[in-house]
Amino acid sequence: MFNPTAEKFLEVFASADSIEIDGVFCRYYDNRIQDGSEDPSDEVINLTMEVDGVENEVIITADDLDEITLCDEGRTWHVGEHEIEFFSVKSIDTNPA
Which top-rank group of organisms is this from (predicted)? Predict the structure, then answer.
């Protein structure tokens, strides 16, 4: 349904535990991907992140995914009007025992 770059983006979106969108970092985000029709304007991702009491809504359509690019370093995705990076954050055990 999507090009290989978009498929990889959706795979990483579903598996990472943290995301940064346009400089806003969020851990444990809603990583659901919408099952949509064939309409290119349909939402594939509708993500609302609340950071410091401010809600940020990010909508990614099938059209956006058709135009997706990945930077040369392979870290920053350019999707629609957004720059997106994914992270998997591990906790550090600080128990002195």
Answer: Bacteria
Q: Which of 73, 84, 87 is nearest to 17 (CA)?
A: 87
Give the integer Cα–Cα distance in Å for 57 and 34. 15
Summarize pLDDT for 16-69 with one digit per residue, the tens: 999 999 999 998 899 999 876 667 788 999 999 887 888 889 999 999 999 999
Q: Domain residues of the chain, as ranges?
A: 4-87
Cα angle: 71, vertex 74, 77; to 5 degrees: 55
CB 79 within 8 A of CB 10: no
- Report the CATH number of the 4-87 domain: 2.30.29.190
